[in-house]
Amino acid sequence: MIGVTGILDVRVEFVCSRCLSPFCRELRVPFDESFTRDSELLDEERDNLHLVADDEEVDLQPYVEQSILLALPYVPVCQEECRGLTTSGVNRNVFPDAENEVAVDPRLAALADWFKKEE
What we know:
Belongs to the DUF177 domain family. This is Large ribosomal RNA subunit accumulation protein YceD. The protein is α+β, with helices and mostly antiparallel strands and 119 residues long. The protein folds into 2 domains: 2-71, no CATH class; 85-119, no CATH class. Helices cover 18% and strands 27% of the residues. The protein is built from 2 helices and 3 strands. The chain has helices at 61-71, 109-118, and strands at residues 2-15, 22-36, 49-51. The protein has a 3-stranded mixed β-sheet. The longest helix is centred in the middle third of the chain and has 11 residues, at 61-71. The chain is elongated.
């Protein structure tokens, strides 16, 4: 059995899920995989143990890619305080005074006009 361990340092470019601005982050991803030629050592409890053929080389690229993909944030944000976009698409981080416009369903526009007349 052969073990490969280490830390993967990766620079990743994201798009903020709130304001759609591009940003970069450094990720430090732990890497720990084991390889064996003996199929009897495989069991369900050892998910990082992989069976390899009798070749002398093992391609680590798919295992590295999987580790990095699993470490990516599900909802990346540029900063915790990101204010996002207005309904018209204005970045509220750049223009903090921009206000959200109230979108009225066109089917209910007549009802909205009726309430305005009541006031």
